[in-house]
Amino acid sequence: MSRVVAADDNMSLPFFSPELSHVSSCSGASSPTFAQLLKNVGDTRNMETPAPGRDQHHVDMDLASPDRSVPFVLSFNDLTYSVKVRRKFTWRRVPSDPIIGASSEGMTKTLLNGISGEARDGEILAVLGASGSGKSTLIDALANRIAKGSLKGNVTLNGEVLNSKMQKAISAYVMQDDLLFPMLTVEETLMFAAEFRLPRSLSKSKKNLRVQALIEQLGIRNAAKTIIGDEGHRGISGGERRRVSIGIDIIHDPILLFLDEPTSGLDSTSALSVIKVLKRIAQSGSMVIMTLHQPSYRLLRLLDRLLFLSRGQTVFSGSPAMLPRFFTEFGHPIPEHENRTEFALDLIRELEGSAGGTRSLVEFNKGFRQRKTEPRTSQTGLSLKEAISASISKGKLVSGATTTTTTTTTNTPVYTIPTFANPFWVELAVLAKRSMTNYRRQPELFGIRLGAVLVTGFILATMFWQLDSSPKGVQERLGFFAFAMSTTFYTCADALPVFLQERFIFMRETAYNAYRRSSYVLSHSLVALPSLVILSLAFAATTFWGVGLDGGLMGFLFYFLVILAAFWAGSSFVTFLSGVVPHVMLGYTIVVAILAYFLLFSGFFINRDRIPSYWIWFHYISLVKYPYEAVLINEFSDPTKCFVKGVQIFDNTPLVAVPQGMKVRLLATMSKSLGMRITSSTCLTTGYDILQQQGVTDLSKWNCLWVTVAWGFFFRILFYFSLLLGSKNKRR
């Protein structure tokens, strides 16, 4: 029997029945598949409750029996990590010269220096130390977040080196900052995490039961239906946010859990509740390793092992109960009523400020560790894969594990763990649904964007109201098209903060293979399309008939498609920049500058034939060029429509002020000189002539449309590679 226990903070919280590991009988029946094990995850909630007269605490102790645990020991030996400090430009004075600039020599700073220790399942290992002591660096080293070749030493689990794929599947890393979607509720946030991390073979109802059990484990039942919230929307408290952040990373019940400052910024009560949650997680069969800044006395009672660091070196390693003995033998006994960790940290800071530093404490710790006796690590006789498989069969929800073979010695099913828990299309659907849910609850964002497009369209329509077909009307049409096409690109700049706000959520989720980067890029594109269609239709409908553009219904449809393609290309371009540029303001500066260059080289201000040869390449990569030429061809492609007749030939010359009669006589004189009859109704310039004058002769309007669309896909591909190369999330 197994069920959720939330009453006692010190009890374990298994989610699978212990009897599941005994499905196969000793008579040679086949071992249960992982699908069979997962099938029972929901049934455990409906199993019989304890007898009315039986003590609740007694039942909980039965569930936390040692027989369920599978021993894991994470050992790290002689971890050393150094970084090169950037050269700094300094001013110095030399005897023979005035003050001159000089560059200091590059230096190497050691962040970790021979760190060794171990952590065990069912326990919490807390890494403590002052700021800059190397706490976060050590957690990153243990979590495989430092690039290979940079870290010296070795990290093993049960004596075997973990490969990156395996570690991502069986571990989770909770960052210091709470990176959550503000408009999702607590329950939705955890449910989306379950959709990502739990395999497709597990039904949605079973995933929901897992989420509900986790909500009970985290102690956030009262906030389950409340949105996360942000600066503009009231949501859950800081302690609840931290517990939700932990929850989304432990939804698959990992064997290893790393946390960077999980109590940072919390009051003492919230910090205590977070550590109690971590204690329950550890007792459910996980190994919890975290950094702490300065734990209180109540927090200290929940910790199993402590590791104090000072400037990258170990100054104490052991259980909290060993602290008094350690510092007494060192010659600095801890006062009776003083917090042990506060005393230790204060003494370490005092030694760091002294001439010899903490060298004496480091050396004393080495001798103390050699003298003290520790219980030997239990030997299981299982390989790492067999131990992980046994842990899975006893209830650990490792992402997407599937059974392959059964060992002959222990009759334990061996599981293979795929890189991703779900196929591509499942990730795509879940990502799209999450984004749409988050955006749907912020209608003001799209409303502002739609309002900006409508206002811009209204201003353009009223400014260029019902243009005629005179030579001036032609110039005004050219100006309208250039401004309209550039406006579509500038209005896409608001897509810049979208990914910048989600960047660290994306990096956290993809760091441990919650989903593929390609799934994110495609879902990001699909979610953006409906809004682009609405914006394009609004702008096209506002301007097409107001300005008096040519082509009728078919002309409007093509005009709408060009606007949509321009929005698509502009949105893709800005999205790509958001994957490269880390800051919003810097991104806006770059977007505005590059779009201005695109407009300059589009062919409106200077024809293609007059662009200098050394700049002609920029003309062909201008995003504004192709939609601009497409709408020009759409407008001026009618061979029967005339734009300059008879005396209108003088409209763009100083002779425009000459009386009408004089213009007619000048026209007659020109007719005699040219040997052809030119009257006031003779067509002198057609749309084809205008296209020739503008240098729009290379591509058809449909080819211009397809090129614009292709630019959009090109920048989406570049966005994917920017994510692939820029989100490794590892120190070098």
From TrEMBL:
Residues 94-336 form the ABC transporter domain. GO terms for cellular component: membrane. The chain crosses the membrane at residues 446-467, 479-500, 521-544, 556-577, 584-606, 705-726. One of its GO terms (molecular function) is ATP hydrolysis activity. SMART domains: AAA. Keywords: ATP-binding, Membrane, Nucleotide-binding, Transmembrane, Transmembrane helix, Transport. It is a multi-pass membrane protein. It comes from the Eukaryota. It is found in: Membrane. Belongs to the ABC transporter superfamily. ABCG family. Eye pigment precursor importer (TC 3.A.1.204) subfamily. This is ABC transporter G family member 6. It comes from Noccaea caerulescens. The lineage of its organism: Eukaryota, Viridiplantae, Streptophyta, Embryophyta, Tracheophyta.
